């Protein structure tokens, strides 16, 4: 026993000596083999050593400042820059001194568009086929709402290449469970490459009492309109940066909540439009079509699609309906003009500080088509799902509270469906309708005095929101990195359209694109497009609220596919499915291939997600869920 203890003690002593020897060896090894990037000399003494200080990362010589502007819920025919009847003088000036892109596409709803924009990859590939909201996500690779680290953002790339990076306004792709002051913050804007962020993390917020965040903490709003606050902050970021490092380029991502619901704006803006929409939405569409032809942003022989059967002809409405509906549109128009004014403040600041000529501006007028979420009647502050009220009562409530439209009291102000169709002219359908150009086609303006020779030019090349990242890198002269923070990066899926800036006939490099939102889906290839509207047999959310049985599952096999040749029929008036069945089958097969490649399967309808989460959690009693349901409802449907 004594020998055993001595032996144990000896072995323990040996173990200690061995560890010490290993540490010494490791220290010596570290000195003899310094970090791979170290280019100096390490000797035993300072006299025998040579220091090495790596050069700070700098952007390419002459690199432009970059400003990305992304508006929310604006149809193709809203802004005067593309023929609309809402005055946007800043947009007009940028377009007249830059380029109008008429064939630019988004995903049909906000979060997938933003995820695709920031990463240059399809929304499903970056896990945002739906939303980052818990109630609108699902436990699958394309649906969990969490952008992976191997899908780096434009901000991460530019920051690693000598830019300062700022974001203000709506972010929209931070998972709900991460969006508290406890973090984690890796999926907040500051965790995705932005030096500073000021805005809100969700999909919508009260414009006078926003859920406001600065960098990595919630802060108290000051009572002013949010767009005013984010504009001040954007200018402040640039001013401080240029004072500290004059001439260093910056990237600003300016994404106001405007003009998403709630439509809230000071009367000085909305009152500018008093009486301007009394002729109604049918006349609005005709006037816009004529303006668009004069501008050359649509074909000269274009014809409007038929009025959607859900929408009543304006002249058949009652005087009360016309009064209320016109006021909704006055507020929306004022809200858009005010937003244009605030963007103009940024542009004027850059001009006054002699930075505008070398600033590349991408202005996307909308992250999807015009919103259909205001129902047929329009909403002010009421929750139609919770109330389950009739159209007649909703109209009377809106009439009684007409003075609250657009004010801080109008917590859910959104215009009626008829105005969504009008501001989407010359296309049919609306936001969420990923099968239709009305859901996915938005105006794009590029302004870059140093890099664009033609002023006021029009470009008709097909392009997609994923293309802005590679195009920006191409213009700046930066290659997409193989690694970001030592994480190997996935491929960039977007295609650069840099060549089109000074060549109106440049070939579009973006040949294939899938679309999918809430069951509505489409596939584009070389001007041909196949799409299917998804109209479930049963309204799963409605059937599950207040009941114990499992909600119904959407039947995707019942959806009817249509086929269009967009080269000849840009606004989808002539369905060719019966004429070219082989072409339709070819495109449907391509959709399946793209769905597999981009994590889109399983196909999920938002009603299925809602129904199951409401059923499993009892969330039907939670008002916030009811609010979310209203935000994505189909027109006219109530509980």
Automatic annotation (TrEMBL):
The keyword Signal applies. Residues 1-30 form the signal peptide. Residues 64-478 form the Sulfatase N-terminal domain. Keywords: Calcium, Metal-binding, Signal. CDD domains: PAS_like (cd16025). Pfam families: Sulfatase. Belongs to the sulfatase family. This is Arylsulfatase. It comes from Flavobacterium taihuense.
